[in-house]
């Protein structure tokens, strides 16, 4: 036919920067018609003036060539011959590609470049696996029909157009596994575990500080030294009091009042009073033996067995006398028993 070369191009180009693959697709360049030559693509055997065929068929994405075929093969369908190129390619994550090809006419004398068709965008979005689709591209008087179908989703992908991740898989490649556990964690869009409530840890298996019990983490308990600890269930456990203390249920262990005592682990709210005549400083009553005799008043002496006793007649003592005896009045002087509160209390006896 003597026509000069025209380039027929269809390039599969990824519209996003990512080159992640989500699926495999099949594209079939099929049935070309050119009204300029008044030709159809149907003929029976042998070469005619309209024996079109394809060269340099390319499928590309983001400048990367996914498929290239130098020349066409012919397919016979109901005694009709068609130029046909079938390509199977890994599709980019957005399922968009561009096609490019040259259309030639097979003549008896020589082959002619007829037309270049280029920048033919094709998308597999919203297609269903296994279903066949077709689209027609036009360039001048040329018309090309392309059949295509989604063969399979790559591992981890599913749904129409392989747009979704299979259950419990996340991320741009649907390669991160995360299965939510009720009451423990959910999974974000990247498959990272998000602990619920007061749970922490790589698998949300632990509780935040002061939350109990393990596995639930819904009870708060803040231990108070000297007052209470926390059980594994988060219940307050009052600490045992040391000797010299009583247990107040609101405030914990408190020192015994003056002149009272207690032993260790006293769970009572009160302490025990020292024996009569004995006493001890507040909080120092760690046993009954810690209670000692109190100071005697003036006119008494201290018996370690029975406590303060009145001074005998004609004897005296000052306050806080810790001796077991009193002091005798001067010669010729005397005082009634227990009345000798000082030496001046001794008066002359009757003549």
Task: Please provide a written account of the structure.
This protein is mostly beta strands and 351 residues long. The protein is built from no helices and 33 strands. A five-stranded antiparallel β-sheet has the order 4-5-1-9-8, with no helix packed on it. It has a four-stranded antiparallel β-sheet with strand order 3-2-6-7, with no helix packed on it. β16 and β17 form a beta hairpin. The N terminus is likely disordered.
Summary keywords:
33 strands; disordered N terminus; four-stranded antiparallel β-sheet; 351 residues; mainly beta
Strand order of the largest sheet: 4-5-1-9-8
The secondary-structure class comes to mainly beta
Largest sheet: 5 strands, antiparallel
Rounded mean pLDDT is 82
- Identify the overall geometry: rod-shaped
Summarize, please.
0% of the residues lie in helices and 44% in strands.
Layout of helices and strands:
Elements: E1 21-34, E2 51-61, E3 64-71, E4 73-77, E5 80-92, E6 96-106, E7 111-123, E8 132-139, E9 142-153, E10 157-158, E11 164-165, E12 169-170, E13 176-177, E14 185-187, E15 193-195, E16 199-200, E17 206-207, E18 211-212, E19 219-220, E20 228-230, E21 236-238, E22 245-248, E23 252-255, E24 260-261, E25 272-273, E26 278-279, E27 292-293, E28 300-303, E29 307-310, E30 315-316, E31 327-328, E32 333-334, E33 347-348
Antiparallel strand pairs: 1-5, 1-9, 2-3, 2-6, 4-5, 6-7, 8-9, 10-11, 12-13, 14-15, 16-17, 18-19, 20-21, 22-23, 24-25, 26-27, 28-29, 30-31, 32-33
